[in-house]
Amino acid sequence: MIAISADRLSKKYKRNVALNLATFEIPKGSVAALVGKNGAGKSTLLHVLAGLAKVDSGHVTVNGSSPSQNSTWLSQIGFVDQVASLPSQYSLKKLSRLGSDLNTTWNDELLFQRSEQLEISPDRRVENLSGGQKHAVAVLLALAKEPAVVLLDEPLASLDPISRRTLLGIFLSHAYENASTILLSSHLVGDLERACDHIVLLSKGSVLLSHSIDEVVGAHFWVTNSHTTKALLDSLMVSPLECWIELDSKLLVCTSNAALVNQLDAKPAGLEEIVIARMTGSSLYRSSTNTTEAPN
Amino acid sequence: MKNGRTQFSIDRTTGVPPFLQIVEQVKESLYTGKLSLGDYLPSISEVVRVSAINANTVMKAYRELETLGVAQALQGVGTIIIDLPKGANPILLDTYYSKFEALIIQARQDGLEWEPILHLASTVMREIKAKEKPL
Asked: Which of A214, A28, A54, A247 is nearest to B16 (CA)?
């Protein structure tokens, strides 16, 4: 089952392209990472998915229907913006009372259990919390209504490594216990790779990659950048070879061809390296299924 | 492995699939006696919460341990250790622990550094492995 589906989403702000035919799907129950450089369109995409921004063209489905202001749909969606705005005079306790009045489902027991895990006192006013804690409170409130789809923009930024781990554990528990789907944007690929099972890589408003992380990591290999390697890659007219990327003095090969991997003496690549290579690799060749000599 | 103290860790830089890393960590705990027959593996929700590892990864690892015949999932109870990994007979492990220990102590006394010892061991293993493997 698909929880989030985006089909050729495009959006411009005046002349600036924010989304350019972005297409991807996220399976239900997945904890997905939204990764990309600053300005790649991550926040715009999350706003579109949350029903807070409209696309110029394309079609989007979140939890079975198009994003709207319909209260039934909204009750199933949790969204926390990059800058969470909470009333500064309120404590978590007061916010929770407010939340339980405004929502049909409200799990305050879990909310206070989680805030205790993060060592955030429920009696403390928002204005007296640190930036990272404020954001964590906003995230905990979004989870308290037990939404089926959770959209989070940079939820881990400005948290210390320990709280980051704790908050990730909270996300994962939420997804596992409620079979709900989480899409979160972050630059901390190292933190995401242990926790997430799916990656959406965004560049200049387009989706470069949307795949299971296991599959992505399993198909990328480092090989020595030499003329013989390149000649070998050139000579191989096999379809499983999707592409190779030149980065510094190394070549990153993306292939599911095990025989090729053995032949090239390839070494496995980590997710962070793959993401960086995919985004910055100086040249990217793509061999088509029927690589033939170019006519002179 | 006594309840509540198990933590798995994932290192993506090694290129080893995360679920296999958990499998390896369970095996290692079995070799070193941290985990014994009849012990329960931590519940999936516990691993997810405590170690912030994706539930699918943990489930895949536990399924792999079942396929290997090491663990068995008991409905509503948990996953229990029912056997040691193949080729890891505890008596043999004990015997060879002493043999390797004596050999390494000897190598150190003869003046070999740690790194060459490690290098030597892995080279020998690799070469024997290559010979064993039918082409």
From this structure: A214
